[in-house]
Amino acid sequence: MQMTGNTVLVTGGGSGIGCGLAESLHRVGNQVVIAGRRREPLQEVAKANPGMQILSLDQGDPADIRRFATELTDRYPDLNVVINNAGIQRVEDLTTSGPSAAEQTVAINLLGPIRLTAALLPSMLKKPRAAIVNVTSGLAFMPSSLTPTYCATKAALHSYTQSLRFQLRETSVQVIEIIPPHVQTALQGERGFDPNAMPLDDYVTETMTLLRTKPQAEEILVDRVKGLRFAERDGVYDEIYRAFNEAITASVGQVRSG
After folding, report:
1. How far apart are CA 245 and CA 4, in angstroms?
2. Distances 182 to 113, 179, 189 between C-alpha atoms, Å
3. Which element (helix H / strand E) includes 135?
4. Per-residue pLDDT reduced to its tens digit, 93-148
């Protein structure tokens, strides 16, 4: 993936990691389009970054994805980088809650990027160079018991990304997976920012450096996420799973009490 001269779509670009990546890519010389369900955050980001464009997208709605893909490719025919970043995270008590939160999470976090990729891929395959960038999570490899369906969707998106990469191996479309650790964003909603999470600016800076210095990388891993990504490979998964989840539960309790 080249770092300049692209036309880039970032879903979920109105806040958090998506906003950070969109602003960084805009600054280094790309045409950036940010998309999301709520226009107000998108408009604020675009206002702060003159030249950045916005489009509305409800990623949980298959019909809106089809509408969006048509509008996007009509307005920005040079689109050659898609960053599938949009997602939601819900706390679930599996002993009492129904399936509605899980169904919404699957629709947005997993089916959303799958449907959007399928809709945009024919156009991207015609480009001399292109990239599909899927943002998963360290929780795909070390799940949090607080957010079981979120973790499951990220694990599934990791698997899908691997298959997509293999199927596109002889095309001009590079497939990259960005795997964040726990980052201080609004993804956690009313739980607030975890003071133990990685600061957003630090995460975006390290990620952009990796994208620039490792242009052929299949996975973008900041140092802080490597322990989760490679826990099973290194034979320490069972050893740290319980401690990891106990630490998450404790940190959420600290945020709520604060």
Report:
1. 40
2. 21, 10, 14
3. strand 130-135
4. 999 988 999 999 999 999 999 999 999 999 999 999 999 999 999 999 999 999 99
Query: Which residues, 6 or more positions from 41, have their beta carbon under 8 angstroms from its beta carbon?
Result: 14, 15, 19
**Can you tell me which residue has the tokens 């069972």?**
238
Question: Is 150 labeled as catalytic in the residue annotation?
Answer: yes
pLDDT value of residue 257: 43
Residues with Cβ < 8 Å from 40, sequence gap 6 or more? 14
pLDDT tens across 213-227, in order? Answer: 999 999 999 999 999
The span from the CA of 230 to the CA of 151, in Å, is 16
CA angle 162, 174, 59 (to 5 degrees): 70
- Angle CA(201)–CA(207)–CA(211) in degrees, nearest 5? 145
- Nearest alpha-carbon partner for 218 in 147, 131, 106, 148: 131
How far apart CA 216 and CA 223 sit, in angstroms, is: 18
**Which tokens in the block code for residue 39?**
């226009």
HSE of 210 in the Cβ direction (CA atoms, 13 Å)? 19
Annotated catalytic residue within 76, 150, 160, 237? 150
CA distance 254 to 257: 5
